[in-house]
Amino acid sequence: MNDTFHIAVFASGTGTTLQRLIDSQDRYGYRVALVVVNRECMAADRAAKAHIPTLQTKDWETIDNSLRAHEIKLIVLAGFLAIIPNWICKKWEGQIINIHPSLLPKHGGKGMYGIRVQEAVLAAGDKEAGCTVHYVSAEVDGGRIIAQSVVEVQSNDTPQSLAERVQQAEKQLLPQIVGRLKAGD
Ligand code: GAR
User: Do 75 and 84 meet the contact criterion of CB atoms below 8 Å apart?
Assistant: First the structure.
């Protein structure tokens, strides 16, 4: 049994969140021991560069076995654009977290990802945007909220400018929360 706090990061896109998790490992005392991707993406290239074992598959039995083989204690969804099957949610209950670029429960649910979220924030005339780290449950973006970070909306914001500030906030918040969960908080 390994004492290091091993995390697995699941990603589908450019992997800038994964990169921040890799870069923050020493500061917060966890280890990215496995990266899971469901398609070819930049996140997989980043994992390879950091010499982190990477699994590219859509087969959940294979993923589950690999999580156990790598003694994973926490799964972090970082821009992973696939629905987690119910049986995985149940088996890993309390051990899967997700980062979402809005102040949930606002602007969440199926189809709400990336720039669409900030478009919805601006269309709703919200004064505050931000991001949420939450536990993953069978309901998309519906699990218990762990922490949020608020970003003020400015009158001249475009979806892109707002998304940039929200992503900065995400990258501060997520490694911190992994560190907190490692400490058992
Ligand atoms: C992040 O901004 C994350 O919040 C978002 O995808 C981005 C991943 O970027 N996730 C969602 O919208 C989930 N509903 P990255 O690939 O550069 O890390």
Answer: no
Point out the catalytic residue in the list 6, 51, 100, 134: 100
Its pTM surpasses 0.85: yes
**How far is residue 34's CA from residue 32's CA, in Å, rounded to a whole number?**
6
Query: In the annotation, is 100 catalytic?
Result: yes
Q: Which of 101, 71, 67, 107 is nearest to 84 (CA)?
A: 67
Angle at 20 between CA 14 and CA 23, to 5 degrees: 125
Question: Closest Cα to atom 9, ligand 1: which residue?
Answer: 79
Q: What is the CA radius of gyration of the chain?
A: 16
Which residue type is seen at 155? S
Q: Which atom of ligand 1 is nearest to the CA of 16?
A: 17
Q: Which of 14, 17, 148, 172 has most ligand 1 atoms within 8 Å of CB, for mutation?
A: 17
d(CA 33, CA 68): 11
**Per-residue pLDDT tens digits for 69-114:** 999 999 999 999 899 999 999 999 999 999 999 999 999 998 899 8
- What pLDDT digit, counting tens, does each position of 58-69 carry? 999 999 999 999
pLDDT in tens, 7-22: 999 999 999 999 999 9
- For ligand 1, residues with CB inside 6 Å are 11, 13-18, 43, 78-79, 99-101, 112-114, 167, 170
